[in-house]
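Example record used in the benchmark description.
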Amino acid sequence: MSIRQNMQRLWQRSIAFATSRDALIFIVFVMFSTLLWWSRNNDNQHQRTMVVDINYLGLTPDIAFTDSIPTSLKITYTDNNRKLFNSRPLIDAITVDCTPDLENKKNSINISAGALLQTVNDQLPQSATALHIEPSSLQIPFIRLESKTVPVRFCGTLQAALQYQLDDNMVIQPSVITIYGLQSTIDTINEVKTTEQHISDIKERLTCDVQLEPIADVRFSQSSVELQTNAFAFTETSMTLPIKIIDAPEASDIKVFPAEVNVKMQMSIDNYRKLKESDVKAFVNYSDMVKSTNGMTKVYISTETLHIFNVKVSPENIEFIIEEK
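Model output (structure tokens):
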């Protein structure tokens, strides 16, 4: 058999093997073995890096840093349990507890290289180990600001819905806050204002958070307060009332003209349902009569049990005559 025939036969056998099931299984096995080796070698021997935020625990508003502080850490680590092709960081942030340094009345936050590395490892998954961090330690000087308590003042307008009346008792909670800053700065501040608010169409009870207006170089114990107010549905009614004379001496005989007035007033619907004519009184003061130079005096309206508003009296002023008995 010639060499050419042998080569042709060998080529045909190679083609047959390459297209056979055994060859396919062999190729898959080799690829899987290579992939597994690469994965284990990459996880166990290669180092990775990630950059994570730093959260400072325990900081209070009276702490002011004298310089910019590190906001992130660059961590070099190994991880024996990473999934193939997974490049997501193991964690998003590292929490650093500043409480011990603040409670010891120190003027700086000091986290040694060993303590910071231990903090990082404590917050990493058990499969990961931090090898190097940057910065390797934290030395952050700060100063303590002075404090002062000041009232909060609401700025803006409140408007009730149609046929509703606002309650007089608007509440800001808390009504005072603590501000922090240099002594020369906070000495000039006597109140903190809310941001401008214009709230309309109020019905029944309103409770909402209102932001405080920032002040340059000053910190607040909180950035917002709670506003509480109430609106109630009202109605209008009228009644004719006799006029009473207050504080008149017994020796005087006083006559008023007219002897009755018409009173229009508004009140909540709940109060209207309870209203009795005896709840509202019309009166004049004897002391006003004595001071009068034109024989006229003002009529007043009072109620001891119900809240009324937008009161209109007709007539508002009446004539009188004082006679000695």
